[in-house]
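Re: How this chain folds, sequence and tokenised backbone to follow
How to read it: Take the token row as a discrete description of the fold.
Start of record: The labelled sequence and token lines come straight after this line.
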Amino acid sequence: MYSSADVHDADILYPMTDIEISATQTKGAVIAFAVFGLLLILVDSILYISSWIYRLSAKFDLT
């Protein structure tokens, strides 16, 4: 956790930076990351169903 002094220092330094991140940019980045992850899952599933890749059996699971 940050102390109140750290938060206070960040508030003081905020006007000195040129960086601005809006909620829309953050939401867009989260959506893009999620879509990319879902796309990778889809590609993995297609490769597995088409027998281009094989997964390890359950005895290799770490859980």
Summary: The CA atoms of residues 4 and 48 lie 51 Å apart.
